[in-house]
Amino acid sequence: MADGTPTPPREASTFAPDPVFASNAVATRDLADRAHADRSAFWAEQADACVTWGRRPTETLDWSDPPFARWFADGTLNVAYNCLDRHVEAGHGERVALLWEGEPGDARAVTYAELTADVKRAANLLSSLGVGPGDRVVVYLPQIPEAVVAMLAVARLGAVHSVVFGGFSAESLRARIDDAEATLVITADGGWRKGSVSPLKPAVDAALALGGRSTVENVLVIRRGENAVDWVEGRDLWWHEALEGVEAEHTAEMFEAEHPLFILYTSGTTGRPKGILHTSGGYLTQVAYTHRNVFDLRPETDVYWCTADVGWITGHSYVVYGPLANGATQVLYEGTPDSPGPGRWWDLVEKYGVTILYTAPTAIRGFMKAGREIPQARDLTSLRLLGSVGEPINPEAWLWYREVIGSGTTPIVDTWWQTETGAMMISPLPGVTTTKPGAAQTPVPGIVVDVVDDQGVPVADGESGLLVVTEPWPSMLRGIWGDRDRYVETYWGRFGDRYFAGDGARRDDDGDIWLLGRVDDVMNVSGHRLSTAEIESALVSNPLVAESAVVGAADETTGQAVVAFVVLRDKKRRSVTPEEAVARLRAHVADRIGAIARPRTIVLVDELPKTRSGKIMRRLLRDVAEGREVGDTTTLADSAVMGVITAEMR
């Protein structure tokens, strides 16, 4: 479809909810009816259901100073208490909170009682180091239980954490430390990744050694990798030594609902980093509500696994705060999907009896490339719900996910949301929605979105436009840290009274929403607007292709030309020459979409440039396609990939 919708496979169909699943689903059809009838009352109801308040709020939303919202502002709570203490007090202290697995195979099961005690000790330690309400603490850790402990200990004190993903460079780390004016960094010597230890403490040392005085007074170091580290006496402290003798009793103080909870810096920024600020009561309400209803969560019996790193918003909302607020048992895994072998994730699903799996389309396509025989060699029958997050999922990957991982019956929830939104905004409800492969479909009850044209006029069904959120929502960002004007200009400047997500979308003939990716990923080829997601979807629908990334490159004749980077399936690459593969794929795109979308160039590569969270760095591919020097590669999982791709392009 040349107007921008990802092209569904010709055999695509819809999938109605399983009647047995629907008859006992957490989310029911009346959820949307109640939200539509009275949004304010609906969110007040969710706040009561999801949060234990110190002082119950009497007001829901204060929108008197748009675009600055205040949700449940006269209420008080402690976020860490809601994630920990209340479950222990309710008699669930022996329930496992974290089923942690390290990449080398070491494992720990941490109960809610143990996690609560660990967080109380850590809170006392941080307090002894001078951390108090409003202070900023940078967390730079691998995916280990102590990362969760650190985040919750900071939140317990009313301080503000800023988690920095372990793949960021010393320069990026220092920029975030300086912008937040952090007084403490919590890090580790290193963490396991792809069979070896990736150092972290050296990056902290390098960051703090950069020019100018840092605000950091102490560095707490967790021993994980056993790699050698330098030491600054008086500044650096071993976590385990500092915790010796620290009491495990700590009374959680209640803070106002609008008290800051965390700053999370968006990735890929240039110049001054952009710190997205989230507060407490509204954020916790929406992440707990969506986690329970979208995933049909049964905390007594489910084993939930979100594969995201805690350094990203998905890790904040659906590894730490949402699951723990709901008393869930979850898997936490340190390493990569292919270490020590390509079946590692499926081994963990089988080992722990995972019932709910939430992961990214890039990971799914990677498994498609490796072959279905790998997951099919494991027992995945425990899975009862699958989720997708991070970018639009092409219909072929959606169908593979359902058929191979979900045994052809398991519901899939394809979720759309952002760092800025804090929680899910668009998603099917598994017992309610008739799903369509590749479509995010419908706003979560309580959320109001629209698709508009460049002038802000809603588009008709069957047309593409810009995705906007038309009403405030509880987990919305409260600003950009230290820059009120930038917040207003970046997110509200285009339409004034509506939040502009930066994404393109389309309403199909049924009114369902299809995400088209960032608007800067829409190409203009000879006057025709083409979505990169559309062409990528067409390429992946060919049985030769495991994964693809498409960018627009400047072209004197057409304005922009389509350049595709394609990873062939392992078994298929031996059956066709590169020249034959390129010719077949160019013809395939023309057949599926039209001649206007036929790629000018197709580059066959072994791997696409991805961050450690699995996101494809298309801006780097655009640099290569247009012959520019490749930009910053420090956030890539494997920085050598770009050198190989650049050589292939020549």
Provide the fold topology.
Blueprint: H1 19-23, H2 30-37, H3 39-50, E1 61-65, E2 68-71, E3 76-77, H4 79-83, H5 85-92, E4 96-101, E5 107-111, H6 112-128, E6 136-140, H7 145-156, E7 160-163, H8 170-180, E8 184-188, E9 190-193, E10 196-199, H9 201-209, E11 218-222, E12 236-238, H10 239-242, E13 255-256, E14 260-265, E15 275-279, H11 281-294, E16 303-306, H12 313-325, E17 329-333, H13 344-352, E18 356-359, H14 361-370, H15 373-376, E19 385-388, H16 395-405, E20 412-414, E21 449-452, E22 464-469, E23 479-480, H17 484-492, E24 499-507, E25 513-518, E26 522-525, E27 528-531, H18 532-540, E28 545-555, E29 559-568, H19 578-592, E30 601-604, H20 618-625, H21 641-649
Parallel strand pairs: 4-17, 6-7, 6-8, 8-11, 11-12, 16-17, 16-18, 18-19, 19-20, 29-30
Antiparallel strand pairs: 1-2, 3-13, 4-5, 9-10, 14-15, 15-23, 21-22, 22-24, 24-25, 26-27, 28-29
Helix pairs in contact: 2-3, 3-11, 6-7, 8-9, 11-12, 14-16, 20-21
CATH architecture of the domain at 526-649: 2-Layer Sandwich
Strand content: 15-25%
Tell how many strands the DSSP assignment holds: 30
Q: What is the radius of gyration?
A: 24 Å
Arithmetic mean pLDDT: 91
For the report, how would you describe the main beta sheet?
A: 7 strands, mixed
User: What spatial order of strands do you see in the largest sheet?
Assistant: 5-4-17-16-18-19-20
Number of helices: 21
How does the helix and strand content classify structurally? Answer: alpha/beta
- CATH class label of the domain at 526-649: Alpha Beta
- Reported by name, the CATH topology of the domain at 526-649 is GMP Synthetase, Chain A, domain 3
